[in-house]
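Reviewers of the previous submission asked for a worked example of the structure-prediction workflow described in the proposal, so we include one complete record here. The input consisted solely of the amino acid sequence. No template or homolog information was supplied to the procedure at any stage.
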Amino acid sequence: MPRQRRLRKVVAPPNFKGYKPYGARTRSIDDEVELLYEEYEAIKLADYDLMNHAEAATLMGVSRATFARIYESARRKIANAFVEAKEIKVVYGNAELDKDWFLCNHCMARFTIPVKMPKDLCPLCGSQKVESINK
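From that input alone, the workflow returned the following structure tokens.
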């Protein structure tokens, strides 16, 4: 029996729910690629923040080899989506967010709530249409 997977630490959720290729017609659910939060975080740390794999692995709370597998999986999924003109959808996966993150469904702001603020109000627009992003 395999070991239970450890949750991978993600500092912040992505700012998007997905991407669609411009000018391509999506025909079915098979024309989608699911990018996991931890795969998004691996791409962000390695390619955007320019961290080496050892540093990024430490930040995510996994081994360097595990980080390399997550990163490789993310690169393959993104390449598949680009070449075959597939939509990329971001899904939660096997991740744990660093803090409690919320989304305002009125102004679409993503935020963490300081201890002194009420948890049911958006700090930007004051709306009560707030939901937790954490699973």
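The mean pLDDT is 85. We consider this example representative of the routine output the project will generate in years two and three.
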